[in-house]
Amino acid sequence: MASINAAITAVNGWLPPYVLTNKELEQLVDTSDEWIKTRTGITERRILKGEGQGTSVMAAEAVKGLCEKRGISPEEIDVIICATITPDMMFPNCANMVTEKVGAKNAMGFDLVAACSGFLYALETGSNFIKSGNYKKVVVVGADKMSSITNYEDRTSCILFGDGAAAVLLEPTEEDFGIKDTILRNDGQSKDILYLKAGGSAYPASEETVRNKDHYFVQDGKSVFRFAVTRMADVSVEVMERNGLTGDDIAYLVPHQANKRIIEATANRMGVSMDKVTLNIERYGNTTAATIPLCLWEWEDKFKKGDNLILSAFGGGFTWGSIYVKWAY
pLDDT band at residue 136, thresholds of 50, 70 and 90? Predict the structure, then answer.
């Protein structure tokens, strides 16, 4: 009996209409358009506006469009996995809300938390649901409303992040396509370098946590940069080597969009030229779990059946990883 592989059969993204430019940020903090572009590669980012508008709003739009593209009913979906660190509320989970919004009445749904690496963790999880043989249609969503946990008085961090969502559909195939190999890592010893302190069970919301601005994420940017440059490249090269791939074999590197210099360093280590690297950081900034699937969505028409893609990410925790995908359509 042939083995079952999990293939990406459709991808769709959704972005809020409001555009926050570097020029507008110049009015909020001591920064400049040139300074931001030079250090990050970001020109603008999208922001979800409106009272009561949470991550599930963006995720649901991405999933609705995904179903329309693939020509399926939401009722055919077996599982929805939502990678996010900004759910609408602690519970019910974001995926639970998405199933209701899109009409996925027969799906189970759950959230997965791994910061900027969340989509990779969720994609590996979803692929194993497919490989079990018990599930035929698994939707993996990467979605974050980073504006909800960003301190717009902090000039070092408010320039980096935006809001967005994208989703992929995984379906079984006996052909040699889909999720081929995965390496995922984490290091909890680095938890104090990039984190969100309050809102959990250790530091529940209080007057003090609000006064101390503990509900905004905090990072040591230089340390994050140093770790990310090394770890993203390490796992990307490792997954290539154990599958006998060289830079010439890679059609596209699809990296997490945190910083253009980190992306360039990763591509250089892999022996992949920048014309084979998917980029959207200039227009969207860092959308955390949404960056990689948004890149898949925007570059979808450039991918060819059988293309070798390397997906790579690094995020808070620390978490990081790389996935080797053979494009299925």
Answer: very high
Judged against a pLDDT cut of 70, whether residue 272 lies above it is answered with yes
Do 94 and 235 fall into the same domain? no
Q: Which residues form the catalytic set?
A: 116, 256, 286
Q: Is 116 helix (H, G, I), strand (E, B) or coil?
A: helix
Q: Does residue 160 share a domain with residue 47?
A: yes
Q: Which of 140, 175, 210 lies at the terminal end of a domain, its last residue?
A: 175
| pLDDT tens-digit series, residues 78-109 | 999 999 999 999 999 999 999 999 999 999 99
Q: What are residue 6's DSSP bridge partners?
A: 172
308: left (phi over 0), alpha (psi -120 to 50) or beta: beta
Domain finish residue from 175, 208, 238: 175
Residue 33 is encoded by which pair of tokens? 């358009």
Which pair of tokens denotes residue 329?
């359509």
Cα–Cα distance between 30 and 173 in angstroms, integer?
A: 53
Does the reported pTM lie above 0.90? Answer: yes
202 exposure class (CB count in 10 Å sphere: 0-12, 13-18, 19+): exposed
Length of the chain, in residues: 329
Q: What is the pLDDT of residues 23-70, one digit of tens each?
A: 999 999 999 999 999 989 999 999 999 999 999 999 999 999 999 999
Nearest Cα to Cα of residue 166 among 73, 280, 263: 280
61: Cβ–Cβ under 8 A, 6 or more apart, which residues? 14, 165
Give the integer Cα–Cα distance in Å for 309 and 307: 6
* Residue whose tokens read 């309050």: 198
Considering Cα of 87, then 12, then 174, then 103, what sign does the dihedral take? positive
Q: What are phi and psi of 268, to 5 degrees?
A: -60, -45
29 and 157 co-located in one domain: yes
